[in-house]
Design goal:
The protein is α+β, with helices and mostly antiparallel strands. About 25% of the residues lie in helices and about 35% in strands. The protein has three helices and five strands. Strand 4 and strand 5 form a beta hairpin. The protein is globular.
Length: about 110
C-alpha cells in the first residue's frame, strides 16, 4: 500500500520543493460500527535538495476520514493492476497540500 502512495508521489506531490518518505498507514473504525472509519498515513517530508539523513525532515500525518481499509483505498483491475482509488487520492492530496503549506520556509 505504501508503495502505491510512493509511486503516485512522483507524479504529484513530490514534484515541488519537498520530497516524501511514507512510513506507515493505519485504518481504524469505531468498535462495532459498520460505517467507514479513518485512515492515517505517517510520513517524513524534507527539502528536495537534501535527504532523510542530512535533513531537515519533518514527521507528519494525514488523516483521511471515510475509508475502511485496503479495499477502500485501492482499485484493483481485472488483470491485477492496482492503483490508488480516486476518492482516496483526492483526500490524501488535499491533506498533503495543507501539510506542505504549514511547513517552515526552506
Amino acid at each position: 500500500m505504501l508503495g502505491l502512495i510512493d509511486n503516485i508521489c512522483g507524479d504529484s506531490w513530490c514534484e515541488g520543493d519537498h520530497n516524501f518518505h511514507f512510513d506507515q498507514i493505519q485504518c481504524t473504525r469505531a468498535c462495532g460500527s459498520t460505517r467507514a472509519g479513518t485512515c492515517q498515513v505517517t510520513f517524513r517530508i524534507f527539502p528536495y535538495d537534501s535527504d532523510l539523513e542530512t535533513g531537515p525532515s519533518y514527521i507528519r500525518t494525514c488523516k483521511t476520514p471515510g475509508f475502511t481499509g485496503f479495499a477502500s483505498l485501492v482499485d484493483t483491475a481485472a488483470n491485477g493492476y492496482q492503483s490508488l482509488a480516486w476518492d482516496y487520492y483526492d483526500s490524501l492530496s488535499a491533506c498533503i497540500s495543507k501539510v506542505e503549506q504549514a511547513l517552515p520556509p526552506i
